[in-house]
Amino acid sequence: MVIVHDPRQRELSPLLPLLVAADPARVVAWRHGQAISAAHFLADVRAVAAFLPDATAAVNLCEDRYAFLVAFCAVVLRGQTNLLPSSRAPQAVDEVMRAHPGCHALGEQRLDPPPPNYRQLPSFDALPPAQVEAGWPAIPADQVVAIGYTSGSTGVPGANRKTWGSFHASNAGNLARLHATVGDRFEVVATVPPQHMYGMEMSVLLPLLGNVGVHTGRPFFPGDVAAALATVPQPRVLVTTPVHLRALIESGIGLPPIAAMVSATAPLPIELARAAEQRFDAPLLEVFGSTETCVFASRRPTVDEDWSLYDDVILHPQPDGTAIEAPQLGAPVTLADIVSLSGGGRRFRLCGRHADMLEIAGKRASLADLTRRLLAIPGVRDGVVFQHGDGDALGVHRIAALVVAPGLDEQVILDALRRAIDPLFLPRPLKRVDALPRNETGKLPRAALLDLLQARD
């Protein structure tokens, strides 16, 4: 099957490679301990592209990272758009499919019941596919290749369109930052799913658009992470979250040598960052971005509290947030984050989110800072401070806290908080729980927090 894009689109938009570095032997992925070359990968992509139905879009439900990579590129090669729900829960998938009539769904697993128009991918465990000689594929820069849906942690999930040109631009910033830290070639092991935009950037775009190989599993438990790292050569980069970092440290497990760690999806307490660097003898980079913007800044929190912007990114502080200009954005995007600029506008310090800012009796605080101080209490393993209710007659919102702290009671935690924050901002109620309702990327959907707060012990 020959795949041809609309010729008019080719005239209007420059073409960008689907896979950079046209070396057929370049290792794109590590699967079951075996290296997958670019030629092998592209043969799998073309085979799956021929297998797909005619449609405008496809819900990519692949859990195996190699299957996701192949399906993602096959969908793009057919001129279709990858739809990335905030989760693989049937309700979330159904909502996305209803918003895109005529789309189909695909995955590597047999689902019962399957979503409408579901196709199960052929197995990739057979003999390597025939590597038919063909031109290196290129994609129009303005082709919408993915629509990512936000997690809903701060509201209703929203759709975010990504073109192939915008992905090339955002990946350039991440690649430059990692090149400066670990060198030109490295291997990635990621604990985050590829459907999430952070996972997309760090475990899908890097191997497609850089001289990077990715481990195709998604290790969850500390022992799985160590085993995955051991199957790829050095230098190794661990892409993860604060939740996974804490679990790795508390497990006491040893890891093979790693060149760097990358963290995102949730605030990274400085104490955790220091412990991770000391335990694993590698720099820990924290990246800053969103589903709407992709990553546009980074920092090493053990060295600097300020964030450094990627090249050609400009911030415009607003009364209710910050407008971002970036190469990957067709127009400025305003986020709710409040920042203060320094370094001639090339650096910034995060002051909180507009929706997180609290004002009581003329005093101000942010939920993020209150959560940071909660997590700094010895014995607190996890926790969050958040607003609940619609506010009183004066518009003042009540704040609550959920805390994972075996061995501490609520009063001890409140006493420690009272020494660290203004008593006006003490969370009431503060409830101890066995675990926070984090989703697969470590985020805390507001609805789940409220349900847990109201649940009876």
TrEMBL record:
InterPro entries xrefs: AMP-bd_C_sf, AMP-dep_synth/lig_dom, ANL_N_sf, ATP-dep_AMP-bd_enzyme
Q: Does the keyword Cytoplasm apply?
A: no
Which residue windows are transmembrane per the record? none
Tell me one Pfam family matched here: AMP-binding
**UniProt entry keywords in alphabetical sequence:** Ligase
Q: Which Gene3D superfamilies match?
A: 3.30.300.30, N-terminal domain of ligase-like
Domain named AMP-dependent synthetase/ligase: which ranges? 120-308
Molecular functions per Gene Ontology:
ligase activity
What is the official name of this protein in its record?
AMP-ligase
- Give the originating organism: Rhodanobacter spathiphylli B39
